[in-house]
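STRUCTURE:
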């Protein structure tokens, strides 16, 4: 998919293509912060600029993956990323992930709006019928956010993920177009 043309605007965030100019020492510090990556696949190993460049290249020409930078509208800061991966136009499905790297932006409802924007894009512009996500047991903020958007737990991968060497379950969640609770700026974040 041509991610260079995707720009999504919400009340508090703008989603735009993640670019090489977004990758620097601050971005690298997010990936190497155990608190930020505790529940992410990149957690547990040191990341380098070369690793991040390789990650970004996966998205640049991929017809099945989209990576967008989350920009806080008030400060114009890049605060994290949201992705739509493994898009299958045959089955009209894709999976999503999100990271808010700047911890001073945690708890403000920005993840909810970023996910709402990319999911709305997936359903309305791309014609997907289902979006899936995975959440590691203990990541209550992400689980609550996804459930607020309408996602339902569909299954559990038992002891699939290690958090501080402790095995944790991964919950697989799914959301169909008709279940999606669109973003409403009049509703405060929960």
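SEQUENCE:
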């Amino acid at each position: 998919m041509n991610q260079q043309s995707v720009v999504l605007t919400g009340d508090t965030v703008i989603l735009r293509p993640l670019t090489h100019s977004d990758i620097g020492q601050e971005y690298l510090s997010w990936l190497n912060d155990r608190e930020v990556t505790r529940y992410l696949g990149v957690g547990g190993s040191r990341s380098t600029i070369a690793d991040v460049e390789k990650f970004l290249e996966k998205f640049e020409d991929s017809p099945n993956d989209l990576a967008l930078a989350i920009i806080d509208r008030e400060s114009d800061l890049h605060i994290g990323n949201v992705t739509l991966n493994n898009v299958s136009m045959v089955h009209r499905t894709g999976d999503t992930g999100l990271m808010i790297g700047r911890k001073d932006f945690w708890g403000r409802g920005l993840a909810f709006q970023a996910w709402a924007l990319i999911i709305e894009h997936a359903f309305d512009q791309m014609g997907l019928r289902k979006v899936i996500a995975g959440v590691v047991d203990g990541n209550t903020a992400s689980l609550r956010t996804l459930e607020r958007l309408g996602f339902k737990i569909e299954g559990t991968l038992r002891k699939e993920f290690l958090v501080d060497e402790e095995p944790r379950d991964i919950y697989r969640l799914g959301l169909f177009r008709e279940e999606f609770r669109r973003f409403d700026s009049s509703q405060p974040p929960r």
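REMARK: The domain at 3-129 is CATH 3.40.630.30 (Aminopeptidase).
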